[in-house]
Design a protein that fits this description.
single chain, 278 residues, alpha/beta, Chemotaxis Receptor Methyltransferase Cher, domain 1, Rossmann fold, 10 strands, 45% helix, 21% strand
């Protein structure tokens, strides 16, 4: 089912979404939003799209309903070891370079932020890479922050239980080492799960993201495509502040950190470009 969301109500709704989440929807997305408005109208017993928009603007004082609606807007399709060539650049170049520098100064901390973590495959992949690449992971103080605007996918991520499709690119030896199979699902082991701390963070909320800092690596892949140029620049500018000197940022394959913020230095690892804080 779908509701009759007209252009006037679409524009009002799109403005609410933009102010809260920094996500800009053009009018060609009216069908996309209408389907999701219908779902929330049914849940609340609201009769018209106009009344739903008014509810969001004037009655949803706690922001609970807006959060339910935002949960429906982003695509959460992901899997372990996605974009392998980028992960290879992280593991074999950026991580090695960072570890070597930290050893020289006696720094045994590794801090990673997976922003827009969806159902957890990315941060858990990073945890597995660290366990495989570090000579002795127990000698390091490792903290991985995984954040998303969608509270429902964070709940799923914390459980660490996945369908076989999510593991389609995971080497067989890693599946055997880090997962337990039960009832057709794959359960990540507790040691790996405990390396990741999940938090609900809206990247457009400057008060939330100002608390995130001192990271060696930030991953924000296939997230900024939902933002307009202004919101995208604000987020990447904060990522620059949140990174330690010499830290690296990883965006989606179609995104360039240096085009958004020229302060990032481009380095080459094999055929892959990486972006480092100068």
């Amino acid at each position: 089912m779908i509701c009759d969301l007209d252009v006037y109500d679409f524009d009002r709704l799109a403005e609410v979404i933009y102010r809260k989440a920094g996500i800009r929807f053009e009018q060609k997305k009216i069908y996309f939003l209408a389907k999701r408005v219908w779902k929330r109208m049914q849940a609340l017993g609201i009769k018209t799209p106009g009344n739903y928009v008014r509810y969001l603007k004037f009655q949803d004082h706690s922001g609970t309903e807006l959060q339910h609606f935002l949960n429906l807007l982003t695509v959460n399709e992901t899997y372990f070891f996605r974009d392998f060539s980028q992960l290879q650049a992280f593991a074999e170049y950026c991580l090695e370079k960072t570890i070597s520098k930290k050893k020289e100064i006696g720094d045994r901390t590794i801090r990673i932020w997976s922003a827009g973590c969806s159902s957890g495959e990315e941060p858990y992949t990073l945890a597995i890479i660290l366990l495989e690449m570090l000579d002795d992971p127990t000698e390091w103080d490792i903290k991985i922050l995984a954040s998303d605007i969608d509270q429902e996918v964070i709940k799923k991520a914390r459980a660490g239980v996945y369908k076989p499709r999510s593991l389609k690119d995971v080497p067989a030896e890693y599946i055997q080492k880090y997962f337990r199979q039960a009832a057709g699902m794959y359960h990540l082991d507790d040691e790996t799960k405990n390396m990741v701390n999940f938090r609900h963070i809206n990247l457009s909320d400057r008060w939330q993201i100002r608390k995130c800092n001192n990271y060696d690596f930030i991953f924000c892949r296939n997230v900024l495509i939902y933002f307009d140029d202004i919101s995208r620049k604000k987020v990447v500018d904060h990522f620059y502040i949140a990174l330690n000197n010499g830290g690296y940022i990883f965006l989606g394959s179609s995104e360039s950190a240096s085009r958004i913020n020229p302060a990032f230095k481009i380095e080459k690892s094999g055929s892959h470009l990486v972006y480092r804080k100068k």
